[in-house]
Amino acid sequence: MTQPTQPLQPPGGDLVLTPPEPVAPVEPERAATLVPLDDEVRADLDRRAASYVDALTSLDTRSPEFLAKVGDIAGLGDTEMRASASSANRMLDRSVAALAGAGGEGAGAQSRVGQGLVELRRTVEDLDPKDLGKVTGRRMLSWLPFGNKLRDFLNRYQSANTNINKIVLSLRSGQDELRRDSTAIQHERTQLWRSMGKLQEYAVLSEALDRALEQRIAEVEARDPEQAQALRADALFPVRQRHQDLLTQLAVCVQGYLALDTIRRNNEELIKGVDRAAVTTVSALRIAVTIAGALANQKQVIEQVNALRGTTENLIAANAEMLSAQSAEIQRIAADPAVGVETLRRSFEQIYQTIDSIDQYKAQAVQNMRSTVDALSSELGRAAGHLERSAARNELEA
C-alpha cells in the first residue's frame, strides 16, 4: 500500500554548511599529552616501572636472565601497536578515499551526494525564471498569454519534475549511506580511542622506566662504571627506543582519530545539506509553480472581466450617443412646424405660377378661338351657295 505523502516542512534557520578545519600533523611528543590518564594510573605505572628496574638491576648484566628481562621491553605494547596500526591504516584509507571521491577520483557517498547537489543546483538554475523576478503587477501579467514566460516556466517544471525527484531520491540514498558511514566511523573511533588509551599507558610506563633507569644508572655509575655502561647500552637504549616507537604510533593513531572526526563532521554537514537542500528546493519549486499557475488563472479571469467590461462600456457609450442624437432631433422636430415655411412659400409660388400660366393660356386661347370662329364662318358662307345650288338640282331631278 502506498504511504501518504508527508507535507514538507521548512528547514529551521538558514542553510550554513561549515567545513571542518583540516587535520594538522601531530608530533610524537605532543601525542603523549592528547590522551588523558588518571593520576592513580600514572602512580601505578611509576610503581611498576620502579619494581621492574629493581628486578633488572639485581641481575648480572651478562646473564641470560638479564637479556630475557630486557627483551620484555622490546615487546612492550606490541599487540596494541599492531591493532592500532591496523585501525589507523583503515581510517587513513577511508580519509584518502573520501578526499579522492570529493576530487572526482572515486564514487564514495560524499562524492555522490556532492554530485547530486551540483546536479540539483543546475536543474534548479535551469528552472529559475530570472526575468519574472524583475517585473510585477500588470507588466508580469501582460506576459501571460500566447506562449508567455510563466506558461513556459510551468512547462519546464513539468519536464524537469521527474528528474528532480530522481535527484532527490539519489540524495536521500546517499544521505542514508553517509549515516551508515558515520556510524561505522564512530565505532572505529571508539575502538581507536581504546587502543590509544592503552598505548598512552605503555608510553607513560616506558617514560617511567626511562626515568627510573636513568636514576639507577646515575647511582651505579659511582661504584660500578662497567655495570652502568651495560645498563645504559642494553636497557636504557631499548627503553627509549620503545618509548619513541610508542609515541610515534600514538601520533599516527591521533592523526587517524582526528581524520575520522573530520570525515564524520563532513558527513554531518552533508546530511544537513541534503535535508535542507531537498526540502527547500522542492518547497521553493512547488511554491513557484503554484504562484505561476495562480497568476495564469488570475490573468484569464482578468481578461474575461476586461472583455465583459469593455463590451458593457461600448454598449453604454453607444446608447448614450444615440440618446444624445435622438434627443436633439426630437427637440428640433418639436420646435419646427409640421410643414416648413419655405416649403409652403415654394408651394404657393408654384400655385401662383400655375394660375398665371392658365390665365395666360386662356388669353391666348381666346384669340386663337376668335380666329378659328372667323375662319369657320367664312368657310360656311362660301359653302352656303354651293349647298343651295345642290339642293335645287335635287328638286329638279325629282
Label this structure with key terms:
2 domains, Toxic_anion-R_TelA, disordered N terminus, mainly alpha
| Low-pLDDT windows of residues | 1-17, 103-107, 133-147
Query: Nearest-angstrom radius of gyration?
Result: 63 Å
What's the helical proportion of residues? Answer: over 70%
Strand content: under 5%
Q: Name the average pLDDT.
A: 75
Number of DSSP helices?
A: 9
Number of strands: 0
Order of helices and strands: HHHHHHHHH
The biggest beta sheet reads: none
Shape, principal axes of CA atoms: rod-shaped
Terminal-residue CA separation = 153 Å
Structural class: mainly alpha
Total count of domains: 2
Family: Belongs to the TelA family.
InterPro entries: Toxic_anion-R_TelA (IPR008863)
Region (Disordered): 1-23
Pfam families: TelA
Would you mind describing this structure in some detail?
With 398 residues, the chain is mainly alpha-helical. The protein folds into 2 domains: 28-302, no CATH class; 343-398. It has 9 helices and no strands. The protein has helices spanning 28-31, 39-57, 64-74, 78-102, 109-127, 137-141, 149-223, 225-335, 341-397. Helix 4 packs antiparallel against helix 7 (149-223), helix 4 packs parallel to helix 8 (225-335) and helix 5 packs antiparallel against helix 7 (149-223). The longest helix is centred in the C-terminal third of the chain and has 111 residues, at 225-335. The radius of gyration is 63 Å and the shape is rod-shaped. The model is unreliable at 1-17, 103-107 and 133-147 (pLDDT under 50).
